[in-house]
Amino acid sequence: MTAPGARRRKQMHLAAHFPGVNSTTVWADPRSGSQIDFSSFRHLAATAERGLFDFFFLAEGLRLREHKGRIHDLDVVGRPESITVLSALAAVTERIGLAATVNATFNEPYELARRLASLDHLSGGRAAWNVVTSSDAFTGENFRRGGYLDRAERYTRAAEFVATARELWDSWTPDGVPRPFAHHGRHFSVSGTFDVARSPQGHPVVIQAGDSDEGREFAASAADVIFTRHGTLEAGQAFYADVKRRLSAYGRRPGDLKVMPGVTFALGDTGAEAQEKAAEIRKQQVSPQNALLALEQVWGRDLSGYDPDGPLPAVDPDPGGEVAQGRVRIADPLAVAARWRAVSEAKGLSIRQTVIETTGRQSFIGTPASVAAQLDEFVTAGAADGFILVPHLTPGGLDDFVDRVVPLLQERGAFRTEYTGATLREHLGLPLPVCHS
């Protein structure tokens, strides 16, 4: 039963990330299922909706990652196209939001705005777009233009892309009248008449994933949700305050952007059991081969001769070295290596143990009651508005959380007990965008 005064408490937002990217999934677990079968997507989405989550989130890969010229098959880096999957899920879900990751570097505004508006119509106002960018020529080889963008240019194009898409969505008035549009900018010059009527949300919800200064500024100017990561309560509070502070420069209020870090969890009947389970999950995620992969990404060198259970290399990273393609490059490998060495030396850790220690997401570990308390503390202490949960199993990795943690969050008055709106904007407490047509 909800405690007196609970309605006045800050409510957290929850989303479900379909696992399988960046070695998240524990493939050795017999409960690990298909990353391709529609039944997997449907199971996780249905579980999240049963848990009254705000949205279901799909990542995307435009090219299979390679390591030293070979496909690295220990992590899933691609899957069926996001909007296609979510359009199918719109037919078998009723309330949960449907968030597609789509690249703003290798798409065009008219075509993508049309697809997202169509998903918003099909789902009754539940569509979201996670805007990502790419500057690497390796991924660009799959596209006619190639990877021509400098790293600094990718956010410039993305910002104009989002602005152009919004112009298209706004070219239909709320009462159903289409009007010609014309956009002439640095990256896009498009004009005509948009052929999809204004959708239930006006604009699909825009999500931005990024921790860099450019990513934070882009989110403050254009996003409704920012998907981030941070390792401690204090780091979360600093990030939260920084991003919220930037909003006023764009005439926005703190509630106009929701901060939702991606997090993992491990549950046990006791704290010790949960810690043991979490340690085993991380050990399976960071196999010896994956440990060396992570090391080589930082060092930019072939380190296949090193023992994963031995010490870190004495040699320094090669700042210009590149052994992996299709991954985000390490911005300052020398600084990362120095931090890893400090952790390794302080705790006497091997290569594999160091990677386990330094590369995990924020994780909430404990009994269902203690995990509920930890999540609630992050929200009430101003470190997050909610969380995007990244389970380690496909497709049943969210089941325990929904069955055992969500009811406790509801008892604390920290999470909804029913959906009170039909659209994703209503779930997130976001206003309808003003149509300027």
From TrEMBL:
Pfam families: Bac_luciferase
InterPro entries reported for this sequence: Diverse_substr_monoxygenases, Luciferase-like_dom, Luciferase-like_sf, NTA_MOA
The entry's keywords: Flavoprotein, FMN, Monooxygenase, Oxidoreductase
Gene Ontology molecular function, alphabetical: monooxygenase activity
Origin: domain of life: Bacteria
UniProt entry tagged with the keyword Flavoprotein: yes
Keyword Oxidoreductase tagged: yes
Residue ranges of domain Luciferase-like in the record: 27-383
Protein family membership: Belongs to the NtaA/SnaA/DszA monooxygenase family.
Protein name, per record: Nitrilotriacetate monooxygenase component A
Species annotation: Streptomyces hiroshimensis
